[in-house]
Each structure stands twice: as C-alpha cells, then as structure tokens.
Amino acid sequence: MQPHTLSIREAHELLTTKQISSVELTTAVLDHIHKTDPLINAFVTIADELALEQARLADQRLRQSEDITPLTGIPFAVKDCISTRGLRTTCSSKILENYIPPYNATVIDRLSTAGAVLIGKQNMDEFGMGSSCENSAFFDTHNPWDLERVPGGSSGGSAAAVAANMGLFALGEDTGGSIRMPAGFCNVTGLKTTYGRVSRYGLIALVSSFDSIGPMARSAYDCAAVLQSIAGQDLKDATSLPDPIPDYLKMLDKPVKGLRLGIPKEYFQAGMEAGVESSIREAIQKFEELGMEIREVSLPHTTYGLPVYYLVLFAEASANLARFDGTRFGLSVAEGAENVIDQYLQTRREGFGPEVKRRIMLGAYVLSAGYYDAYYLKAQKVRTLLRQDFEAAFEQCDALVAPTCPTTAFKLGEKTDDPLTMYLSDIYVVATNPAGVPSLCVPCGFSNNMPVGMQLIGKHLSEDVLLQIGHAYQSATDWHLKRPAVSK
Ligand code: GLN
Q: In principle, which of 148, 150, 279, 325 could form an S-S bond with 445, CB 3.0–4.6 Å?
C-alpha cells in the first residue's frame, strides 16, 4: 500500500483501525511531494515540521479514540489566499511574498479542530486572477497529466496537487470557476459552495460578493467529509449563513432515482471540443440509467454571464486590492519616495503583476463617474437576471448538468498573450458566482488523453443533493479514480 494514494475515506479506516499512524501517512505524503513537486510546482510553501507536529497530536487523539472526525490525521494543503497563522500566505503575488498572517482563516481553525494536518500552501494565479496558473508571480504549475499543459486556474496548484497525490485533499477558492475549472482539467472532484455556506473570514478577498471556499478531493464522498467540517455560520463573517448543516455523508447514499436533471441548452454550443461534448453526453446517459429524469431547460441570459462577471470583478477587485499599498501588509517600496503617495505608487508598481494591474485599472474605469451607470450598475442589474434564470430552471429540476470548460487543458503559453481568449475559457463556470449557487465538478471522461470535467449546479444550499448525485455517478463509474503516472 502506498499511503499517499489513499482517499480520505480509505485513510480514515486505516487510521482508526491503527493500521497506519498519521505520522506515517503524513511522512509518506511529504516524501512524495519532495520527489514529485519539482516536476509540477504545485506548492509555494511546504510545511514539513508543522505538519509532523500536527500529525503527532492527531495520533494522540487516535490512540485515545477521543474526538475523532473523518478528517483526524488526514494531510491536506490549501490555496495560498487562505490565511494561516505563522505560515506565509502570498496569493502568489510579489506584494505578499513575505507576508505572515497573525491569524487563521476560520476554515483553517475548523479543520484544525477536526484534527486534519496542514502540510502546505499551493500556487495560484496572482490574487485568483486567471484560468491557467500562469499569472503566479513565482512559477507556473504544470498539469500532472501532461507537464506541457496548464492545470487550469486559479486554484491550479491545489488541483494539480490532489491529482498527483500530493495531499489527500485541498481547499480552493472559487470566485468564477477557480475550483471547478482546474478540478476538471486535472481529474479532481471540486465543490464550489453556496455563497455564505462556508466562512470567508481570513480568505484574502478577490470579489467579496462572489468568493466561496470549497473542497477539492478524490471523490464526492471525500468532498462531503471536508464540507461537513468547514460549513456553517461564523460570527466573524457577516455574510455566512445561519442555516443548519445537513449530515452530508449520510445523505450520500440516498437514491437518485426520480431526481430531475436539467440540461441547459445554452451550455451546449458550437466551439466545444468534440471529446468534451461526447463525455458529457455519456454521463447524461449514465444519469438516465440511474433513474434520473432528464429534461432540457433554458438559462436565457447565459451570454451575459462573462461580461457581468468580469465587470463586477473589476469593480470589486480594484476596491479590495486598494489595501495593498505598502503601509500595513507585505512589500513596501519606500526608497527614494518623496511622499506617501509616491510610496503607494512604487509599491504597487513593483508588487502587482500585469493581469492584476489590468484589472485594477479596468475597475477604476467602470466605477468612475460617467461610466458607473453604464457598466457597473448595468452589470449588477443583469446579475439579477442571471440569478432569476437559475431560479426559474430550478422550478423544473433538482440540478443542472453542463460541461465545466469547453475544452480540456491547453498548452502552457497558448493563451497568455490574449486575455480575452483566456477569459472565454471561463464561459460555463462564471454565471454561478453572481447567482451564488453551488456547483460540483465531477470527472467524467478523457478527450485527447486529458481529463474532462462536468459540473452539477444546484439551488442555494443544495450541496447535499449535488454530492448525492456525484456520489451515485462515482459509484457507477471509475473516471474519478484515474491518476496520472507522476502520482505513484
Ligand atoms: N478565471 C477566473 C478569473 O480569472 C477565476 C477567478 C476565481 O475563481 N478566482 O477571474
């Protein structure tokens, strides 16, 4: 048995029956990372000592059979925009290169309470802006299925790591597809949670009204186990929801027979890679065999998804990033500055990469007097139409199924010169965030030897239903179990 290849479910079984210790499991994962990550570059920081210290504590808990959760002793890592006390948190930006947060994000505290073992921080597009992980200020992450291809973005490091067995799960952040798109490109199961289901406290904000944290793991079962620990209201995040937390693991085995699955016709348009479309169609057939009712639905404002998403993103991101000016956090370039304004400008000029600067400038533009009504306000109004599209669709069905991305992973460098083409790869994933609804990416096949992901989209707080459908599909298929050669 190679411990780093275990799923959460399998590892939990071995840990609780004392066939393996958390220290052994964590050591195996760390050894595998040190061997494999030089090929992939998924990690910005690997926290060996901290990890082993937590693993020893987890082993104490396991020995005493006290307070054991499905995550006790399980090694995981997080996207580097989630604050970790005492452990560098960079957002893959030069401006935060040496920033060490004085506090933990709520999700980190919750996982620590559950006994999970944090092993490191993962590479991403700078501040979450990108779809390929090539906007990291440090290095590109490579897709473990083909090292010349991108892992997707912006949680590319997290997806690549989980696919290559470098950690049993990861936490990603999804503002406009950043969990689902890389999950699809790397053959990982990833859940974008309902806005407010998981606390954002300690998440370095990209778009405060879109951002959601969620699990990336080897199966829907494993995602359910992680969600169980991180979901729920947090008084430190006023937008977190007070609704009760279902028993996600218990819900998994409920039969899906009779559930209604909608196919949004606008998500099956020209331009989709043939192998992606055929994989999704086969998956739909599988759902039918599982007894689900399939029907076509329409989300008529889909074409406005991208413009609404990007306009609101530019506006909110430019406001959120205003706090990085060299005064309180991270990089400060004061040398030669004549006054404090100079210092702000120098720090931001040196600290931010080109994509971040582009979006800050566009944000200042869409919020400026004279353009505000035409762009920002208009986008917010159309955002309501996007939300209403989903509400109308969910009157006719329990979940929607669609491709995660129109293509499989593209080559490194293929889209870096053309931001618009890069933005277009987000076409199917961005509308859910303005609407706030959850969506689960599930591996469903291969096209040209690269993984294909489908997404299941549900109504607010229906993570239990999405996970149930994902689990039923994964119990009937084995796409999610396939691993790239480097994962051994
Ligand atoms: N591709 C999206 C963007 O560039 C991803 C954002 C995200 O979800 N963090 O904005």
A: 279
- Interval between CA 126 and ligand 1 midpoint (Å): 10
Query: How far is the C-alpha of 85 from the C-alpha of 31, rounded, in Å?
Result: 24
CA of 430 to the centre of ligand 1 (A): 8
Q: Hey, where are the domains in the chain?
A: 3-259+397-487
| 271 pLDDT tier (thresholds 50, 70, 90) | confident
Q: Which of 22, 154, 229, 439 is catalytic?
A: 154
Cβ(178) – ligand 1 distance below 6 Å? yes
Spacing, Cα 214 to ligand 1 middle (Å): 14
Domain 3-259+397-487, CATH: 3.90.1300.10
Candidates 83, 131, 155, 178; catalytic one: 178
298 included as an active-site residue: no
434, 273 contact by CB (below 8 A) = no
Looking at residue 233, its pLDDT comes to 98
Distance CA 197, CA 233 (A): 7
Place of tokens 């051994």: 488
The residues near 389 (Cβ < 8 Å, ≥ 6 apart) are 298, 299, 300, 301, 302, 431, 435
Of 168, 207, 206, 175, residue with least CA distance to 189: 168
Instruction: Give the residue from 79, 62, 85 showing the smallest Cα distance to 14.
Output: 62
CA–CA dist 33, 485 (Å, integer): 14
For 323-370, how does the pLDDT look when each residue is reduced to its tens digit (9 = 90+)? 999 998 899 999 889 999 999 999 999 999 999 999 999 999 999 999
Ligand 1 within 6 A of CB of 129: yes
Backbone torsions φ then ψ of 173, nearest 5 degrees: -135, 135
178 is catalytic: yes
Ligand 1 atom closest to Cα of 129?
Answer: 4
Residue whose CB lies within 8 A of the most ligand 1 atoms, among 81, 135, 178, for a mutation test: 178
The predicted-structure confidence for 108-153, as pLDDT tens digits, reads as follows 999 999 999 999 999 999 999 999 999 999 999 999 999 999 999 9
Question: Which residue is listed with tokens 């000016």?
Answer: 325
- Rounded-to-integer distance, Cα 64 and Cα 45, Å: 32
